[in-house]
Design brief:
heterodimer, A: about 290 residues, mainly alpha, MetI-like fold, two-stranded antiparallel ribbon, B: about 280 residues, 2 domains, 12 helices, globular
């Protein structure tokens, strides 16, 4: 390597400059605001107060944090249960089938989030396709027996719709890391387990799952983090009581105009995210050792 | 009692690891893919439906495409999205490639710190980055209002670059791992300058990852709603932000048509991406 520092400066300076100015500085400003208080309509005085953080512990906001974690957790669990067999099938598929199945998993992943959410609204709303189909069946049944008039199911604007939507959006996030982990597995171990008399289920639970655990954990983290911070899904599919933490943050920065409090909320969300990533990195490192 | 005679099977029975040939698993796959695709298929199908109610099939029409393609505000939003994605992609590829080369090639104080900081935009929740950009462009670097197009999109483009270029850096670094440094040394021994070695040896090797990174950056930018939502003003609406405001009011076939067009663009981009990288590689 040459002692000349110019090539280093030329390659490092632009991305470093960009990262500092257009990413770290904005975050630092929000961080500073989280210790401030509103002094006037647009002025924020950074007074070093912890009052904003104390406010996040109020039952209302703590409840929303817990609820968000619960919703994200349930979403992750459903994704894991639904996605694991898919990842397994892809792993042991022929090369041709593998390419197609991966493409099928990835295509929704590349599709615009808004389009996917809109598609769900069209399916679930009162005049949506699900209710339309049910109404049709109801009418057919009504020609045989006398039935009360059809009342559309309220599938939209509730917590179940939010979880449905989050699973819909995040399923590929789970399948891809699971596939990646299962694909690296030593197949002879599975074959050995089956040959030695363990059943498929026992082999799955005692051999495959422990070996693929780092991949499973990374799938859980990769799914849980965006689900926890989801804004659009609860906003469009949820009802008045299905707000998640991101919706509260948005409100502080827009309608409620309480930036310091919003800043504190978003930094708590950020700390939670970073802690989860650190834990995941540590389990991965321990496994690698 | 006589057992039914088994017909000879064409294929051998499924091996213990051929999970794809077991029917419970096939059923499971079918259910998952139906879940993923039925909403999208209905969205596309009803963009051709000759009914405002958008629910009963009344016959084939292209009217909604005509409506969507003559809707001034929708077209502006679409154009904005594509412009932002294009500008953001160009800068992201350059910055991402430079960052990847710097991390791969040099040792410098704070290298680990830089590496960690580069991972941050990938992992930070969108909403946090969105509010950070809102605050930044409101207080630190107020983006002038009423600039001529495309300069009015500057704040959005800058935010998109910030979350895209670290992704490009990851893709390029993966490719750099397979670069044989002796090739570059040979070029230098033969008299190539730094710049020539970069242009004629390293860049050609990196080309597939640059293209893959560019497609990734383009899709990320086109897809983004949350961060754009916080940085866009009334005259800088992007396609997702426009669809968001339309969806809040009602579900109309016009939105279906516009979405189908974007969906088509996504499929084309994915197919192009696959020409450069196998899905199995992307998945890893």
């Amino acid at each position: 390597m040459s002692s000349d520092r110019r090539p280093l400066a030329v390659t490092l300076a632009p991305p470093l400059f960009w990262l500092l100015l257009f990413f770290l500085v904005p975050l630092a400003v929000v961080w500073a605001y989280s210790f401030g208080r509103n002094a006037g309509l647009t002025e924020i005085e950074i007074s070093g107060t912890f009052a904003n953080y104390a406010r996040t512990l109020e039952p209302l906001y703590l409840g929303i944090f817990l609820k968000s974690a619960g919703v994200a957790g349930l979403t992750t669990l459903i994704c894991l249960v639904a996605g694991f067999p898919v990842a397994l099938a892809i792993t042991f598929a022929s090369d041709r089938a593998k390419t197609w199945l991966l493409l099928l998993v990835m295509l929704p992943f590349w599709t615009n989030l808004l389009i996917r959410t809109y598609a769900l609204i069209a399916v679930l709303r009162d005049e949506g396709y699900v209710n339309f189909t049910l109404e049709w069946i109801w009418a057919r049944l009504g020609s045989i027996w006398t039935l009360p008039p059809f009342v559309p199911l309220e599938l939209l604007h509730n917590n179940a719709a939010v979880i449905f939507g989050l699973v819909y959006v995040h399923l590929p996030f789970m399948v891809l890391p699971l596939y990646s982990a299962l694909d690296r597995l030593d197949r002879s171990l599975i074959e050995a387990s089956l040959d030695l008399g363990a059943g498929q289920l026992r082999t799955m639970l005692r051999v495959v799952v422990p070996l693929a655990l780092p991949g499973i954990i990374s799938g859980i983290v990769i799914t849980f983090i965006p689900a926890l911070g989801a804004y659009l899904t609860p906003d469009l599919l949820g009802g008045p009581d299905s707000q998640m933490i991101a919706n509260v943050i948005e409100r502080q920065f827009k309608r409620a105009n309480d930036w310091p409090f919003g800043a504190a909320l978003s930094f708590i969300l950020m700390y939670l995210t970073l802690i989860m990533i650190a834990v995941q990195a540590m389990t991965e490192k321990r496994k690698a050792r | 009692m006589k057992r039914p005679v088994k017909r000879p099977v064409k294929r051998p029975p499924a091996g213990p690891l051929e999970y794809l040939r077991r029917w419970p698993l096939r059923l499971w796959l079918l259910a998952v893919f139906a879940f993923l695709y039925i909403p999208l298929f209905t969205l596309v199908a009803f963009s051709f439906n000759d009914s405002k109610r958008n629910i009963v099939w009344r016959g084939f029409t292209l009217d909604w495409y005509g409506k969507a393609l003559t809707d001034e505000s929708l077209l502006t939003a679409f154009g904005n999205s594509l412009t932002i994605a294009l500008l953001s992609t160009i800068v992201s590829v350059v910055l991402g490639a430079l960052a990847a080369i710097a991390l791969w090639r040099f040792r410098f104080p704070g290298r680990t710190l830089f590496e960690g900081a580069m991972a941050l935009p990938i992992v930070v929740p969108e909403i946090c980055m969105g509010v950070a950009m809102l605050v930044f462009f409101a207080r630190v670097l107020p983006w002038p209002q009423n600039l001529v197009w495309p300069f009015n999109l500057g704040a959005i483009v800058i935010s998109h670059i910030s979350f895209s270029f670290p992704f490009v850096a990851v893709v390029v670094r993966a490719r750099l791992a397979s670069f044989n440094r002796e090739e570059e040394e040979a070029a230098r021994d033969l008299g190539a300058s730094d710049w020539q070695a970069l242009r004629d040896v390293l860049i050609p090797h990196l080309k597939p990852s640059l293209i893959a990174g560019a497609l990734l950056a383009f899709t990320l930018s086109l897809d983004d709603f949350v961060i754009t939502f916080f940085t866009s003003g009334p005259d800088t609406i992007t396609f997702p932000v426009k669809v968001y405001s339309m969806v809040r009011f009602s579900v109309t076939p016009e939105v279906n048509a516009a979405s189908t067009l974007l969906l088509l663009l996504t499929v084309v981009l994915t197919v192009v991406a696959l020409r450069f990288q196998k899905p199995a590689e992307i998945a890893h």
